[in-house]
Amino acid sequence: MSLTDFTGKIIDESVVDSEIFKYIPDKRILRVLFENKIFKLRDIQKEAIQKGLFFQKSFLVCAPSGSGKTFIGEVCAIHNIFQQFGKSIYLVPFKALATEKYFHFKKSYTRYDLKVELSIGDYDIDDSKLEMAIHLRKIKNSLGKKGTQKIILQGSLKDSIIYEQSQSKLIGYLILGIVLLSILFGVVVLVEMFLLPAIMEPLNHLVLISFGIAFVFIVVYRNYSKSGKVA
């Protein structure tokens, strides 16, 4: 196989790492890579493939920006579709990034009859008519509202996990912190009461107040968690 076979253009074959044909066996994916001037794989990408990227295994890729993480997610998602393992969902934290990825996937893969949809909260999508969806943050509110076919979520691809550290989580941590401080304060007061019986009566109210505050915030945290705002 050569670059000419994929691009229809005569290109210097020396720019291509022959190993790429071993790591990426699907000619459709190779064509897209070559058109985007990707002729060699980086070590992190080779390692992901060697460890089962194309065999429906879960991966958490932690690497610096520009190291090739997005490539790993893209080829995995597309390979799963081509092999009919299921549909793919690509999660991103920002509208601009979602739109950018949408046009990239449309340009690169619709030639292979791959249906791509974009969901950024402006409208609902019919999940029965797509194979790949690019979503902004939460997907559950925009999937399956119109179509009868449901997407079976065996996993999802997140191009960034920054948004996981959201304001909702911080509020949850704050509530837990108040609970712990209230309990700690109550325990300290109880110890003082046993050590100094003479001041027991004035401190009774403090104990009740501290444990009462802890109880109230425990109830608040449980309700907050059930609402889905705290993971």
UniProtKB/TrEMBL annotation:
InterPro entries: DEAD/DEAH_box_helicase_dom, Hel308_SKI2-like, P-loop_NTPase. Residues 43-131 form the DEAD/DEAH-box helicase domain. GO terms for molecular function: ATP binding; helicase activity; hydrolase activity; nucleic acid binding. The chain crosses the membrane at residues 170-191, 203-221. Keywords: ATP-binding, Helicase, Hydrolase, Membrane, Nucleotide-binding, Transmembrane, Transmembrane helix. The keyword Transmembrane applies. PANTHER family: ATP-DEPENDENT DNA HELICASE HEL308, DNA POLYMERASE THETA, PUTATIVE (AFU_ORTHOLOGUE AFUA_1G05260)-RELATED. This is DEAD/DEAH-box helicase domain-containing protein. It comes from marine sediment metagenome. The lineage of its organism: unclassified sequences, metagenomes, ecological metagenomes.
